[in-house]
Design brief:
Blueprint: H1 4-15, H2 22-36, E1 44-48, E2 61-64, E3 69-73, H3 74-79, H4 86-112, H5 123-139, H6 147-154, H7 165-177, H8 181-201, H9 205-220, E4 225-226, E5 229-230, H10 235-242, H11 246-259, H12 266-272, H13 278-295
Parallel strand pairs: 1-3
Antiparallel strand pairs: 2-3, 4-5
Helix pairs in contact: 1-4, 2-4, 4-5, 4-8, 5-11, 8-9, 9-13
Length: about 300
């Protein structure tokens, strides 16, 4: 895709000394929607402007299949800009929109391929299907739960008749959100796209380094060390085990062995949140610390 029109709007608006307006963002959204043809699952862009608690899962934006829209929280985005300038805030708005567009593309893929939990020969589809299958339990009303849903939820020790049921379920959702593959892939893809745009049209080292720092952190997110070893549960496996998706764990292992066995795929393995060589993780951490020091981050 040629991002020149999108970048020119971001650059011109920033040069005028103003933030992207709702009309600017809607124009960019329409370009992306037409390019990626996801209007079957998402056909509108809406906004909120109330600063929410940072612990809220829907922080900067959300993509709702039920409402068929993307929502951007402009107050949160302004409060959490990658770079504290008008241009930096506008790039953060673009990154957030790109992130939610990735979710729209994921949803289109999942729903165009039928039943959520079917085994698949496509790692993206498998991980996205598991991710969105997990979400359905947290947004159904009690009256909508089937006997199968109730049995599954009870297997985690939740009593749906408890007055604290909703709070406990939401807390459980947040505990797995960090490892959810759909969030991981949307975060990495949006930053990768933003990096490509800026490297092509901007070329300023401080901007490029900032985006690369964010991208490195997104790749490292969820990989935990125990002593000198990488935790046996890499992010996507931690998610699947947390949700008791045992069949999908076996399926993912098979796909990993089939398509990602070569060491040259380490970055792609990090993108999917599967097992990665300890040396590669260490090298990525060193490069990230170097960028952090170069940027003067605390």
């Amino acid at each position: 895709m040629d991002y020149k029109v999108i970048y020119k709007r971001v650059y011109d608006v920033s040069k005028e000394g103003r933030l992207l307006s709702k009309n600017d963002l809607k124009a960019i959204f329409c370009i992306l929607r037409d390019q990626y043809d996801f209007d079957i699952v998402c056909n509108n862009l809406v906004f909120s402007d109330e600063l929410k608690n940072p612990s809220c899962i829907k922080f900067n934006g959300s993509c709702s299949f039920a409402a068929k829209h993307i929502e951007l929280n402009l107050a949160n985005i302004r409060n959490n800009a990658m770079i504290d300038t008008i241009y930096g805030t506008n790039l953060t708005m673009l990154r957030t929109l790109l992130h939610e567009v990735e979710h729209a593309r994921q949803l289109k893929e999942v729903f165009s391929n039928g039943k959520f939990m079917n085994n698949s020969n496509d790692i993206d589809l498998l991980l996205n299907a598991c991710s969105y299958n997990y979400l359905k339990y947290f947004f159904k009303k009690k009256s909508e739960l089937t006997d199968k849903d109730i049995a599954y939820i009870k297997s985690f020790g939740f009593d749906i008749n408890s007055k604290d049921y909703a709070t406990l379920l939401r807390r459980f959702q947040k505990s797995l959100y960090t490892y959810a593959p759909n969030e991981r892939m949307a975060h990495i893809n949006s930053l990768s796209t933003l990096s490509t745009i800026v490297k092509h049209y901007d070329k300023r080292d401080d901007i490029i380094d900032t985006i690369q720092y964010e991208l490195n952190n997104a790749l490292l997110r969820g990989y935990k060390r125990i002593g000198k070893e990488i935790c046996i549960y890499s992010p996507s496996y931690r998610f699947l085990r947390g949700m008791k998706f045992d069949k999908q764990i076996d399926n993912l292992k098979q796909l990993e062995d089939k398509y990602l066995s070569d060491e040259s795929f380490n970055t792609l393995r990090m993108y999917y949140g599967v097992h990665v060589d300890d040396k590669f993780i260490s090298e990525k951490q060193i490069k990230t610390r170097e960028l952090k020091n170069k940027l003067g981050r605390e």
